[in-house]
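Holo prediction. Input below; ligand is 6-O-phosphono-beta-D-fructofuranose.
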Amino acid sequence: MTLSGADAFDVSRLGMRSLLDSEIWRALGEHHALVRSLDLRTLFANESDRFDRHSLEACGILLDYSKNRVTCETMGLLFALADERGVPEQARAMFQGSAINRSEGQAALHPLLRDSREDPLCEVDVSMRACVEGSLQAMEDFSQAVRSGAWRGYRGDPIEDIVHIGIGGSELGPKMVCRALAPLADGPRVHFVSNIDGWALLSTLGHLSPARTVFVVASKTFTTQETMVNAHSARRWIEDSLGSEAVARHFVAITGARRKALEFGVDPQGIFDIPEWVGGRFSLWSSVGLPVALAVGMPVFRKLLAGAHAMDRHFLSAPGDRNMPIILALIGIWYIHFFGSQTHAVVAYDERLDRFAAHLQQLDMESNGKRVRQDGTRVEHPTGPIVWGEPGTGGQHAFFQLLHQGTPLVPVDFIVAAACDHSLFEHHRLLIANCLAQSQALMTGRCEKELRADLLSSGADLDRTEALVPHRVTEGNRPSNTLMLERLDPFTLGALIALYEHKVFVQGAIWGVNSFDQWGVELGKKVAGSVANELHLDVSSEKAKAIFQDRDRADADRDASTAGLIRAWKERAGRARGDP
Ligand code: F6P
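Structure of the complex:
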């Protein structure tokens, strides 16, 4: 199976058919019954070439998936499943710009944002390609102008600080990349404000000079509450200090809603587009990546795009059994469905990747946290995992206890860069040692016999030994992948992010869900708006008067808990500000 030769996507091929009714699924179930008690230690003992067979390299990333509870037969069945579920056709449809996001009638063309003229993968018309190139050029011009000092503040000062205001996909990707590439940063300092909590904005602005600060307001819709509230407060901060004429010089916008950005006061030249066919969590490659270009320069940003493009090519052209995103996706499905794993840990042994798990959370959980298929029918099986993680080695002293001895089976992705990019090589050697040691320990564990012998030889008496053994036994047989990057550079980082994008896509394709909409988030936004309407302390305001006049009605419309909490907040907030 390769993806590049696939036929056009035929939605009806999947139709209402449940994954669970498929022949291959049944075969996988029978196979699982035979192999579920297989131990990783036995698999390694019986297969001297297991590492070679179950590892591969692409785009500067080595993936070792040998420490998984799979055999060659397991993988063969899983590859057949991907084929049967139309993964090749669905991937091709994505690269052709078909409206695979059916509930929103949209394409999901993020690969076009990193496509190359010389080596094109997306089959789209020239005008779309020209738009993408135009956007990249606009980013280049602006970032270059700020970095060179040609773009100055309203009073003629050079720009020293950028405050990026955005949330979700309009923040997580660029923030993660800025932190990952921080050692290469040679432009203005870039800060990120996403939380509506006023501390987020205040603590950032506290250190900055308005005359030397540019705000980048990133919001595809330009309506997201957190972003707009932060943007308006930031605008007041500029106006109070520099006057309202300064706004156009100190604010730029990244958005799909040009008119709204103009109304806010952004200069037409300062508006960078987000195409409608890019979802928030895939928008890093669009002008949402502007803070990255500001921090490290556009040539570096283009290397990030090149790495992602290389992974796109790998995804489309490598056969299934040498295809990294497909392998990661299938192994994930194996654990979710057949071992009941509900969560997936991502532990990057690299301080620069401290926001990588946060980015993956949105990418995976917003994409595949779905309960119906594309056609609206309900899925009868689990879909996306709960993705979580923290960088190693800190995680070892926090949640690894559960990974080693807890009752849930949590598959882990370990990510580490081989090359040391700093001067403290001894730190790096020990970092690598910890990473490799954890995956080994999860797999091998420590058996009763060995522990008993150790305890007795260290002088413990028989009673104490027997009392301790059950606490200290670590059963092992816990699975993990290790992704070893040649080095954490822009190219490899781009490839790594795209790898996970395609992994998530493949899983969604197999489950038949729409990985590109996010309707579930909308309800929370709507309710937040209506609760906010009731949270007025100033009873003299017209809005508050209208609400308070009909307080009983307001309470009656709410569940008793939320109504009680609203009352409790009003009493306490009133007391806190000294109301009688
Ligand atoms: O939280 C839902 C969501 O729509 C995300 O998908 C998106 O990344 C985020 O909000 C921000 O949206 P916007 O870019 O429109 O402000």
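The chain has a mean pLDDT of 94. That is the main takeaway for now.
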